[in-house]
């Protein structure tokens, strides 16, 4: 009897505690895919948001690389345990767009919660990538970047190449490669990370040629790859030939090749503008950035490049009807997005990391603060995204292919064969087209209706 | 003759079997059944739309050049790993079985690699073979060998074979050493008195007596190379360059986890399940027959 009294007492205490502590914040799970140092900077945004109010608490968790984060979120959804917010790289956009009731579109989230975010102020390339064709936003733009050129000015000086002027054209690059090889003093003149993003996807965008039909997939699921065209063939064959003569070195998939730049092995590197924080910390030489070169003589070129990086998707909890989320949880997510969209916050994020400001207002703030005067070249990615007047074409709006992660791997695999000398660029592109189209057809079939 | 305990009735024996049966059903039959069921379906990544396609996933696989490529890679990879791991282990076991100073120390050190996790082993090999940070990789570069496993399929395959075999040498070593120690010295002495030199003694006396051990190890090594080498390949090459080091088990991961193509991935698992059942059957059949020589 005595024991029961104790038990009841303990239980009533347990019930009373939350009732008393109404300040218990609502937890918002936020999974992200940024390794250090960027991951810490991202988590700081969540901490800062938590400090501005007491009702919600955003809990950021690192879930591995972007593809790993994507897979983890999907598996969690299937197990009825999805995070509220998942950071999804741009390549996963097509998959998320087809995700049906797994995701809560941002435009729905905002209209239901009454939170206002001025998306008209967002850079067109950023807004276009993450919205439906009628302009309604599907996800929250966050860390956007684009591929630019990173080059080692010391190596350029040693080779007798003007360190303040990176060639604007690929013809110009072809001229300096032999000089860098002979006198640059690096292990290899040129390398690239994100082979397909830098050398095929953005390459196609700035030359205003299609990567796939139906406006690169924005027009529907029936899209087909168009990468096997003369210009891409020409460019990729040049890379294959340079790999053979030692002017270029393929550094592995995704961003595996990146370390070759800050450690001084490669004089020229193509990779994300989000690489800045790392180069600043690690490079022990004078470096510069430049816009992507283009082939002189291509009509319309160069125009804007397309973004990479990631956006934030709101997820329902699981496949069960209703989605399993309360109004309060969505309200918290919307408030957090509102906080991130604040131009001051966005400008600081841009200045800390090297990701581009996603809003015009934030770009202006960074300029006013003298950021581009103190950090020459930090505005190069933004200018490149606005190149050609900033009016997007069907070829430069972005890419929306289902199963794009797999298609990228396919292109990498085929070019790894080409770099080994097993096939030429044209064959690699033909094979990648055949295999990639199969992925697109499978996706179309699985997501029909 | 063995002693047998006879239980009366049926309830008790079944009751005693229940925990074991429950574990087997929950952790083997149920997931295996799910895999078979999933292999007949096509689903979108989020599991919201499902279509029954019967054997289409299997037919697609057999018509897929890359799947056949993965099967061929698996044959090359598994036979090389088994040959290398068995050969090295046998050599080391024969040496360690001799009367040498510090034999105990050697034996202990040779067993250590077995305790290293596959991913860690792969990272160790990376520090050896990476063209820009690896000791041997850099040395190759310095003497003019064009070493870069990221763009050379043959080199990549060689590297994963060495890394995977290294892990297995310890296990084989223990069995070979035990096998060697169980060979009666009288047989060896008799052979020596008959004038057989060490080389001949090894091939005509020791090796035949070791063959049951060797056969057992061959099967174990093949199963290891088939199913247990995911970590090594994932950490070192991710199946690349091209698809040069993509084995069947790695392709299951790529299609299921990366490409979110669950139907095809499940179909591949079912095929692997059939292979492992066949290997086990072969092992039992031959071991049972040969063990009484």
TrEMBL record, chain A:
<dbReference type="InterPro" id="IPR050490">
    <property type="entry name" value="Bact_solute-bd_prot1"/>
</dbReference>
<dbReference type="GO" id="GO:0042597">
    <property type="term" value="C:periplasmic space"/>
</dbReference>
<keyword id="KW-0732">Signal</keyword>
<protein>
    <recommendedName>
        <fullName>sn-glycerol-3-phosphate-binding periplasmic protein UgpB</fullName>
    </recommendedName>
</protein>
<keyword id="KW-0813">Transport</keyword>
<comment type="similarity">
    <text>Belongs to the bacterial solute-binding protein 1 family.</text>
</comment>
<feature type="signal peptide">
    <location>
        <begin position="1"/>
        <end position="21"/>
    </location>
</feature>
<comment type="function">
    <text>Part of the ABC transporter complex UgpBAEC involved in sn-glycerol-3-phosphate (G3P) import. Binds G3P.</text>
</comment>
<dbReference type="Pfam" id="PF13416">
    <property type="entry name" value="SBP_bac_8"/>
</dbReference>
<dbReference type="InterPro" id="IPR006059">
    <property type="entry name" value="SBP"/>
</dbReference>
<comment type="subunit">
    <text>The complex is composed of two ATP-binding proteins (UgpC), two transmembrane proteins (UgpA and UgpE) and a solute-binding protein (UgpB).</text>
</comment>
Automatic annotation (TrEMBL), chain B:
<keyword id="KW-0997">Cell inner membrane</keyword>
<feature type="transmembrane region" description="Helical">
    <location>
        <begin position="70"/>
        <end position="93"/>
    </location>
</feature>
<dbReference type="Pfam" id="PF00528">
    <property type="entry name" value="BPD_transp_1"/>
</dbReference>
<dbReference type="InterPro" id="IPR000515">
    <property type="entry name" value="MetI-like"/>
</dbReference>
<comment type="function">
    <text>Part of the ABC transporter complex UgpBAEC involved in sn-glycerol-3-phosphate (G3P) import. Probably responsible for the translocation of the substrate across the membrane.</text>
</comment>
<feature type="transmembrane region" description="Helical">
    <location>
        <begin position="205"/>
        <end position="227"/>
    </location>
</feature>
<feature type="transmembrane region" description="Helical">
    <location>
        <begin position="173"/>
        <end position="193"/>
    </location>
</feature>
<feature type="domain" description="ABC transmembrane type-1">
    <location>
        <begin position="71"/>
        <end position="283"/>
    </location>
</feature>
<feature type="transmembrane region" description="Helical">
    <location>
        <begin position="12"/>
        <end position="32"/>
    </location>
</feature>
<dbReference type="GO" id="GO:0005886">
    <property type="term" value="C:plasma membrane"/>
</dbReference>
<keyword id="KW-1003">Cell membrane</keyword>
<feature type="transmembrane region" description="Helical">
    <location>
        <begin position="105"/>
        <end position="128"/>
    </location>
</feature>
<keyword id="KW-0813">Transport</keyword>
<dbReference type="GO" id="GO:0055085">
    <property type="term" value="P:transmembrane transport"/>
</dbReference>
<feature type="transmembrane region" description="Helical">
    <location>
        <begin position="266"/>
        <end position="287"/>
    </location>
</feature>
<keyword id="KW-0472">Membrane</keyword>
<dbReference type="InterPro" id="IPR050809">
    <property type="entry name" value="UgpAE/MalFG_permease"/>
</dbReference>
<keyword id="KW-1133">Transmembrane helix</keyword>
<comment type="subunit">
    <text>The complex is composed of two ATP-binding proteins (UgpC), two transmembrane proteins (UgpA and UgpE) and a solute-binding protein (UgpB).</text>
</comment>
<keyword id="KW-0812">Transmembrane</keyword>
<protein>
    <recommendedName>
        <fullName>sn-glycerol-3-phosphate transport system permease protein UgpA</fullName>
    </recommendedName>
</protein>
<dbReference type="InterPro" id="IPR035906">
    <property type="entry name" value="MetI-like_sf"/>
</dbReference>
